Amino acid sequence: MSITEEAPELTDTPEMAAFRQRVREFLADHAASRPTPEAQQDRLTEASPAAEVISRAKAYQAALYDAGLAGITWPKEYGGQGLTNEYQRVFNEEMAGHEVPNGVYTIGLGMVIPTLLEFGTEDQKRRYVAKALRGEEIWSQLFSEPGAGSDVASLQSKAERDGDEWVLNGQKVWTTGAQHSDFGAVIARTNPDNPKHRGITMFIVDFKAAGVDVRPLRQMNGGSGFNEVFFSDVRVPADAVIGSVDDGWRCAIAMLMNERVAIGSGGGGGRGGGGIDALTKAARERGLNLDPVTRQAIVDVYIRQRIIGFIGQRTRAALKAGRAPGPEGSIGKLAGALLARRSSDLGMALAGPAGQAWLPGDDRSGRWAQAVLSAPASRIAGGTDEVQRNIIGERVLGLPKEPQVDRDQPFRELRVGTQTEPVR
């Protein structure tokens, strides 16, 4: 069992036992057993064709939905199962031992659709939720801009009302999975006369609409999961507003909290840096397994992984109790990012010269370099380490907020991001 997962209950009620057996049978038919940590590391340098990845994901998610195992706690009227958190716990326990090919749905089902369920209209929920649950439509989140990263509220993409439509113009960046997406949740400036946090609206945007241009970004680790997305006079129906006009910041905060919980509660930040088994094996191969400094470094990684596991348990317990995502997500997200850096740096140190240069075909040696190159992303995605520390300082430690001299100033008067002149 992974150290980031909760131990299953020793006893189940008859209903839970029957549900657990049903989940086991489904996973046995549709998911592979989770590989060893070392095998997972070997896969860091592997890349399946995008079309193959999407095809597997769609087939799995459709089967999950048809089996009545998707959206376990979501309302029945929108395609969910309407079951309690105990059923979700059982499903998570069984899924922990398997590798499921549904990564392309992480943002949609983990961040966007929960926000739509909270703030969307009845028509929006009936139109989009069930299709997302069945994997028929893939979603992205479009927040960051070239001049609005950590300070997302400084965004300059704008939407202007034109009859029964909005006209969207601007640029987003670092949009994960946009090249595979059907729809996105985008925030844009709709009232520059309001302060920057109070003149933003969230929209549903169709990626097939005229004027949407998705351009993948090549990352230093060789991947291209992030994208720039340009909007040029994109027509968005008036009924595509999520929440209320000019009140999109409230929706954005809810989505960011869902994102940090999704990252932090799973301890995902440390997965790219090497599991304990892989690090220990590397130490033995270099003859460093008895070196006290090396042993201490490996123990440090192990302890940090255990802590992230406990943070994840606390976060999931809060969600089970019906509490909205809070600062626990930021704590877990920050801890995961720090672990990714420590474990990847340790892996590279243990690999020695083989971590920087290897023979053709020796992909296993390349995994350490891949981990180092991938680790910085975990310190940025979902909010930088500095943002997480501010949230923890204010909401956990009770420290005073950072000064915000522009909080009540109309956005059009600000000099923020790439904006050097007042908005006309």
Characterize the structure shown.
There is one protein chain. The protein is of the alpha+beta class and 424 residues long. The chain has three domains: 14-137, Acyl-CoA dehydrogenase/oxidase, N-terminal domain (Butyryl-Coa Dehydrogenase, subunit A, domain 1); 140-247, Butyryl-CoA Dehydrogenase, subunit A, domain 2 (Beta Barrel), CATH 2.40.110; 265-383, Butyryl-CoA Dehydrogenase, subunit A, domain 3 (Up-down Bundle), CATH 1.20.140. The protein is 44% helix and 12% strand. The protein is built from twelve helices and ten strands. It has helices spanning 14-30, 37-42, 50-66, 85-95, 106-119, 122-133, 248-264, 276-285, 292-320, 327-351, 363-378, 385-395; strands at residues 32-33, 98-99, 139-142, 158-162, 165-172, 183-189, 200-206, 212-216, 227-237, 241-242. The strands form three sheets. The protein has a four-stranded mixed β-sheet. Strands 4-5-9-8 form a four-stranded antiparallel β-sheet, with no helix packed on it. Helix 1 runs parallel beside helix 4 and helix 8 runs parallel beside helix 10. The longest helix is centred in the last third of the chain and has 29 residues, at 292-320. The radius of gyration is 22 Å and the shape is globular. It starts with 13 loop residues before the first helix and ends in a 29-residue tail after the last helix.
List the helices and strands and how they pair.
Elements: H1 14-30, E1 32-33, H2 37-42, H3 50-66, H4 85-95, E2 98-99, H5 106-119, H6 122-133, E3 139-142, E4 158-162, E5 165-172, E6 183-189, E7 200-206, E8 212-216, E9 227-237, E10 241-242, H7 248-264, H8 276-285, H9 292-320, H10 327-351, H11 363-378, H12 385-395
Parallel strand pairs: 3-6
Antiparallel strand pairs: 1-2, 4-5, 5-9, 6-7, 7-10, 8-9
Helix pairs in contact: 1-4, 5-6, 5-7, 7-10, 8-9, 8-10, 9-10, 10-11, 10-12
